[in-house]
């Protein structure tokens, strides 16, 4: 595969085209996840708390502060993680070590899958608390749009983070296939040499067998004929 390196990236040292990088499905999913996390975080921070005639602010999700805190946490960490992995994707081709590439891909698989699960919990938790919220707790329907936005984009984030997990798994499988035969000896044994080596440093074998006369020959000379004496 010309022009393709291990774990789905270009060869080490190859330049990254920004336009091509921006059109990749993984980059698009990463950008959408960044936007969705920003919406979840900003919606709760800006309009997720209401003042019900006192100085104390209450969470719009059934006055449950844990719901707002959880949504802020998932949105903020997801926002920072998208920024980190976005930079990692752009610099991935410059990583020369195959082991480091493998570690990076495995971290991405674990984090993306785990964050997709956390967004699933966020969607269920916020939707459950919102369904229990009474209209009397939201004067003039204050914070309702922000609550609905946090719930909706938590659901959208499940899809994008799951898509990122699938892309990372595909990258890992591709890297595994391409590095399958990179080890010199898969069985751990020394290579066998069916023929003698012709290298300068290799020793030469000499035969020590003595010359043997061919069969059916006599080593002793034939007896000479003697003339009889009369």
Automatic annotation (TrEMBL):
<comment type="similarity">
    <text>Belongs to the synaptogyrin family.</text>
</comment>
<feature type="transmembrane region" description="Helical">
    <location>
        <begin position="31"/>
        <end position="50"/>
    </location>
</feature>
<feature type="domain" description="MARVEL">
    <location>
        <begin position="21"/>
        <end position="173"/>
    </location>
</feature>
<feature type="transmembrane region" description="Helical">
    <location>
        <begin position="109"/>
        <end position="130"/>
    </location>
</feature>
<protein>
    <recommendedName>
        <fullName>Synaptogyrin</fullName>
    </recommendedName>
</protein>
<dbReference type="InterPro" id="IPR008253">
    <property type="entry name" value="Marvel"/>
</dbReference>
<keyword id="KW-0472">Membrane</keyword>
<feature type="transmembrane region" description="Helical">
    <location>
        <begin position="70"/>
        <end position="88"/>
    </location>
</feature>
<dbReference type="Pfam" id="PF01284">
    <property type="entry name" value="MARVEL"/>
</dbReference>
<dbReference type="GO" id="GO:0031594">
    <property type="term" value="C:neuromuscular junction"/>
</dbReference>
<dbReference type="InterPro" id="IPR016579">
    <property type="entry name" value="Synaptogyrin"/>
</dbReference>
<feature type="transmembrane region" description="Helical">
    <location>
        <begin position="150"/>
        <end position="169"/>
    </location>
</feature>
<feature type="region of interest" description="Disordered">
    <location>
        <begin position="188"/>
        <end position="230"/>
    </location>
</feature>
<keyword id="KW-0812">Transmembrane</keyword>
<keyword id="KW-1133">Transmembrane helix</keyword>
<feature type="compositionally biased region" description="Polar residues">
    <location>
        <begin position="195"/>
        <end position="223"/>
    </location>
</feature>
<dbReference type="GO" id="GO:0030672">
    <property type="term" value="C:synaptic vesicle membrane"/>
</dbReference>
